[in-house]
Structures
1.
Amino acid sequence: MSACLQKCTLDSLGELVEISKKTFADAFEAANDPEDFRNYLDFAFDTVKLESELTNPNSDFYFVYQNGTLVGYFKLNQNDAQTDVGLPESMELERIYVLEPFQGQGIGEWILEAVKKIALTMGKEFIWLGVWQKNRAAITFYERHGFIKFGTHPYYIGKDKQTDWLMRVALDNLGCV
């Protein structure tokens, strides 16, 4: 697979807002209350909010391109930008999304490998993430890549309190070091 990463900058904010809303809606809109979902989408992927996240020195967004076409993106957090855990030896993979037409082509696996390399370069010992407990396909994907559940935390879509599984993978268990 021919893919490459491009770190997002303020110049790519509009494109980041667009792909964030599109991929999140494609993944979760049908499984949520329409009003709660619309309110969440407007809040979580607001231009001002994403600009704030994009300029946080402890967060990085990356676009993923395949043969010159934008196919997905991901967001990494460290230190105080992490939504949970917050250990200096950890890195949060807060968002990982691939546009629907490109799913099932190994792009998610390619992204995970890229994330591992970035985390190792930054001296991290493990990567963690939160995944909706009802998203069995994603949980199975992460388990296949060595992630294990270590806890839960609440995640709100509007007024709807949902539960995310917290999953982690130790980098030294991946043959990456």
2.
Amino acid sequence: MLRIMELIQQNPDLHAYLASDEAIDHWHPLVQETADALWAATGDAYSYAEAAFEFVRDTIPHSADSGDTRVSWRASDVLSTRNGTCYAKAHALAALLRAQGIPAALCYQLLADDDGGAPAAHGLVALRLPGSERWARVDPRGNKPGVDARFTLDHERLAFPVRPELGEVDHPELHAAPHPAVLKVLRESADRQELWRKLPTAL
């Protein structure tokens, strides 16, 4: 079984991971409507969290896979356009989880090409089910050949397990809001090509 990294809350107040902000806008009617529909089809926190994860993973294509050049970053925009990068899809999943009272955090990895070049930050989500004492990371990036991320809380099935020998890093910090460097490039990029040129290379 894979080792689960110890995750660190940046904010000791768990309520911070239920808050809404400009990117995780779970007060938005579309987010609420989507969350209510998923909850009606499930009815308990674990089943809902799994359904929300699979909804974001499977029904919202990663823009690099689909070729979509638009840059979305608000959760509501991700749900509306059905488009987003890893960061945007993480915002959408966090919003859906928070909309039903499940604490959700944003977390990051530093990934690289197979030769160790072109390092860039990758975004994913950690969640903590009601009554649980631990966080679990999941990656709603979207599967493709060679990528098979799953919803598992007892062991991680992420899109990209890090390769330390290539300088890749798992950052243990749990962010209540998007990292400022990530939010900056999302907001300032006119299209995905520009975003790709500006991806944060460190956090």
